[in-house]
Amino acid sequence: MKILVLQFVSTWFMIGIIWLVQIVHYPLFAHVGQDSFPAYEALHTRWITYVVAIPMLIELLASGFWIIERDRRISRWIPWVGLGLVLLIWFSTFAFSVQNHNQLMKGFQEEAWRNLVSTNWIRTLAWTARGGLLVIALFKVTRWGLSGNPLTSRGSSQNIPNKVGE
Predict the structure, then answer these.
(1) By the 8 A CB rule, do 127 and 37 touch?
(2) pTM
(3) Residue 160: CB partners within 8 Å, gap ≥ 6?
(4) For 96, left (φ over 0), alpha (ψ -120 to 50), or beta?
(5) DSSP secondary structure string, 113-141?
(6) pLDDT higher than 70, residue 152
(7) CA 42 remoteness from chain centre
(8) What H or E segment, with its residue span, contains residue 69?
(9) Distance CA 109, CA 115 (A)
(10) CA torsion through residues 82, 87, 90, 95, sign
(11) Mean of pLDDT values over 118-126
């Protein structure tokens, strides 16, 4: 449950950040001005890294751990899809976002900016989907904990362990 909560908090933090960046921050890049843009872009990339690096690392590690620490209250596919979404986010970050930011470090280039905005939708939607997945997982775990074991009938004394091997 701790790994699930850790993922939930870090993912929903990142969902807030990515939607703010996608809807507000990146569109404003076009209004910074040619002369100021290289310095602005350099500060953006440095400061945003301070904000997102730790939550992204937590997500990556926790999603891997979630596969290893299988919880029977959650369908087997959920952690795998969650890990897949994290890997998609990381791939998109390095394949597209970093490359476009590197181009923008040289000065505002409309094509690089448009590519940044359009390819960032991959990360925005992947994080949003991951957040929904974690809501489902957390609901399953808390419902299980609040109402007893939903896999057994009322009055059953059967005790199904939470994790494989217990």
Answers:
(1) no
(2) 0.84
(3) 72, 149, 151, 152
(4) alpha
(5) HHHHHHHHHHHHHHHHHHHHHHHHHHHHH
(6) no
(7) 24
(8) none
(9) 10
(10) negative
(11) 98
